[in-house]
Amino acid sequence: MIGNESLLQLALLLPLVAVAGIRLLGRHENLREAVSLLAGTALFATVCSLYDPVFRGELVEIRWLELMPGLSLAFRAEPLGLLFSLIASFLWSVTTLYAIGYMRGHGEGNQTRFYSLFAVSIGAVMGIAFAENLFTLFVFYEVLTLSTYPLVTHAGTDKARAGGRVYLGILLGTSIGFFLLAIVATWLLAGTLSFTPGGVFDADTPRSLLSVLLALYVFGVGKAAVMPFHRWLPAAMVAPTPVSALLHAVAVVKAGVFVLLKVCLLIFGLDTLGSIPATEWLLYLAGISVLLASVVALRQQNLKARLAYSTVSQLGYITMGALLATSAGFSGSALHIVMHAFGKITLFFCAGAILVAAHKTEIHQLRGIGRQMPVTMVAFFIASLSIIGIPPTGGTWSKWYLMLGTLEAGQWLLMALLMGSSLLSIAYLLPIPLRAFFSGNGQDSGGPPVAIREAPWPSLLAIGVTTLGCMLLLFYPNAFYQLIKVAL
To answer: Phi and psi (nearest 5°) for 430?
Structure first.
């Protein structure tokens, strides 16, 4: 039987093994893609094997390299990181399956580079999820930025390169200008960078210093897309749809909000967080981000752009829940990482399917398209319900706990902001599938309807898996909720 430490090593190394296999078999597309699928399945099975020991509170820790006393590349399997790694590892295989249909159906070039960089990104995610300290987390956080940049610029067009510059500029600028500074300040104030239950700061640490430090973390983790450092996310929509799925559901933005959750819980501690003066104004900044991004999403006519601003809004939910510094708020944030991952990846999968099968990108072009692409648009409808947070989808639970968190903290205005944003999400999401089924004939103008087929079957199968996940999470959220309870 493989030991727990060996399982943790395997979870970190499997994506790198996959990179080697993908590069080696690059000219044999079926074998290359089989390596990606097998690696994703093996990684998910490995992470699942860590569930029981982590749930029981066993210490599963490894150390790769010690640079100096107290500063090392080290990893630990803990509940919050396990939750993130479970989602990312599962969705790696599903996104690969989708990409097989999309990349071939859309005639994309440089597919070997795409799959290998995707594997590197997942490896970086595993490093972030299992990081034992802030130094290790920062290293893999930057690896994730650098490995996803070529994916954003995959098309090689001027527009793609421009989007890539915005992407790289904001993410590197915030991480070096704010995040790294916050890490150094944490080292100086606390004498440690290790993630510690209850936080690392002494009770007599000046709250003014902690206020500055919290602001540096919130703005420094640019991948969380807190306004005004959110523009990289819409700019990155020039990437192929599987990359958009990676950015929004599997890796990048989820890495950002995961880092914020981990910092709030294991660097500050919820009790300390609730006593910091800056927490309240950062809470309201997150609430304003939720509302403004929803309004901007409503104004977008390009489908992927609307989904991108929707993500900015939904990330604000997670940031807000963490900053509420209550158990219900934190539980809602952690659950929303899971629920949003399945809902948003389904929406982007559907957008890509529409592009491949119908060559349409604008919302006004989708009238009547549900009659030619019924599976895709039913999936879009169900995923929209999950993002909104209503049955029969798992998004119901995360929104419920976030609302409870605002009540627990006595933040009535924030509760009103959450409700207002949910109403706006109804306005910018539900009209799309409703018009697809109940208006027009799929044409921009008159003439006989064009027969439009569904996307290639691998993409359609992936859409089916994530759509089913959106619904199953309503009935089976307990495995994730129990992990969150252990983390708290």
So the answer is: -65, -35
